[in-house]
Design goal:
mainly alpha, Arc Repressor Mutant, subunit A, Tetracycline Repressor, domain 2, 65% helix, elongated
Length: 211
């Protein structure tokens, strides 16, 4: 299983910064932000305390950079998937499959996304649910509504119906309480959730009433 230590690759910034970011992601999940000290980061990353302060300013600066890099990478991966398909159903299926695979490969990262109370240690940062990766998921649903592939209802509601169950199953996986392997739930979850939001000419949005 791939762990959070290898999530960030050396693409932007120095190798030193990448080491510190990977260690921060790992330790913030394992210990929490407030219980992780700069000496902890030094011990895990092998980077000197002076270099950490030089590149990130302080622990809060490191956390902000971590969030920026994390959301940038998630957005990049999602955009690649979205661009491969022209229909919302195919985009949805591929995105859910990616989310499942991501949880399997990077459980620490998924735990950080699902459970870390980011605003507790970054009060000036918007909620993770308002970050670009989550907004991209909503936009897929909104565009599907515009093309009449998805029920003509509020995009926020339809996105919650589409991705809410997915996130819940991922939480159960991270918590280690699923009775079967994670992938055993993928196809049924996709089919059930899509059926709940799919556009239908017959009573597609609840406006048609009997009588």
């Amino acid at each position: 299983m791939t762990v959070a230590n290898s999530f960030f690759e050396h693409k932007h910034g120095s190798k030193l910064q990448t080491k510190v970011l990977n260690s921060a992601l790992k330790l913030f999940v394992e210990q929490g932000f407030h219980k992780t000290s700069v000496p902890d980061l030094v011990a895990d990353s092998g980077v000197s305390i002076g270099s950490i302060y030089k590149h990130f300013g302080d622990k809060e600066g490191l956390a902000k950079e971590l969030m920026v890099r994390l959301f940038e990478e998630l957005s990049r991966q999602q955009q690649i998937i979205i661009d491969q398909y022209s229909h919302a159903k195919d985009q949805y299926r591929a995105l859910v499959a990616w989310m499942f695979q991501f949880a399997l490969e990077f459980p620490d990262v998924m735990a950080f996304l699902l459970y870390a109370r980011h605003q507790n240690f970054l009060p000036d940062t918007r909620s993770a649910c308002s970050a670009k990766p989550f907004m991209m998921l909503r936009d897929v649903i909104a565009q599907g509504i515009e093309r009449k592939e998805i029920k003509q209802q509020d995009p926020l509601i339809m996105a919650a119906v589409a991705f809410g169950p997915v996130l819940r199953v991922l939480q159960l996986y991270i918590d280690g309480v699923l009775p079967k392997p994670l992938t055993a739930y993928q196809d049924e979850l996709i089919a059930t959730s899509w059926q709940a939001i799919a556009y239908s000419n017959n009573n597609n949005d609840g406006d048609n009433k009997k009588g």
